[in-house]
Write a structure and sequence with these properties.
The protein is of the alpha+beta class. The chain is 16% helix and 41% strand.
């Protein structure tokens, strides 16, 4: 079971675009906590800390415990917006999570076993069709990634999402057995005819 990471936050009395801009001028990031049948809760986060959490990776699959002036709530990020120029966080949406609850999340696919793939060794190229896969899982069991092994795959071989080993209690949300990865043949580039080979033909025409 993964322990929730801690975040300190403060309550926001006012909402709206103007209020959000005022919060950002103070070095904070406006955010909201929603879900679980409770009213949305407007909060503000330290902008620098929020940026570090986002760029550390796996932000949307990490469970956090937000402490709002002593009141702690377990959440998972559902969305965030970044400034298109500065890359600073503009807003974050958090979903409340409770014990026994399952949620749907997109988890990155991590390919392993490349060194043991005959197809790749012979010059084939691995084509990853699905970079993330949606699963339904308890928040505390969300994996950082889903390992998929291509060991033993030959050129032309394909793996589907049913080849993924899921965490305990997790299930795929897609009913289709989508293609996950395939080993495609190496690209063959044909050499252009040498200019020297064309010269005799040209000379013959002149004769």
């Amino acid at each position: 079971m993964t322990a929730a990471k801690q975040i300190q936050a403060s309550a926001r009395a006012q909402v709206g675009k103007g209020a959000a801009r005022a919060v950002r001028r103070q070095g904070l990031t406006p955010a909201v906590i929603y879900g679980a049948g409770a009213a949305p809760e407007a909060i503000a986060l330290n902008a620098n800390q929020t940026r570090l959490l986002i760029y550390a990776g796996h932000f949307l699959t990490t469970v956090f415990e937000i402490d709002v002036e002593g009141k702690k709530t377990r959440v998972i990020p559902r969305d965030y917006q970044l400034d298109p120029v500065k890359d600073t966080p503009l807003h974050v949406d958090f979903l409340r999570v409770a014990a026994g609850q399952t949620i749907k999340v997109q988890v990155p696919v991590h390919i392993v076993g490349q060194e043991a793939s005959p197809g790749l060794k012979s010059g084939g190229t691995m084509q990853l069709v699905e970079h993330t896969v949606e699963i339904e899982v308890a928040p505390e069991n969300i994996p950082e990634s889903l390992d998929v092994s291509v060991a033993g795959l030959q050129v032309g071989d394909t793996l589907h999402i049913d080849a993924i080993k899921l965490p305990a209690g997790a299930s795929l949300t897609s009913r289709e057995n989508l293609t996950l990865v395939t080993i495609i043949p190496p690209t063959v580039i044909e050499d252009a005819p040498a200019a020297a080979d064309e010269a005799p033909a040209a000379d013959a025409k002149k004769a």
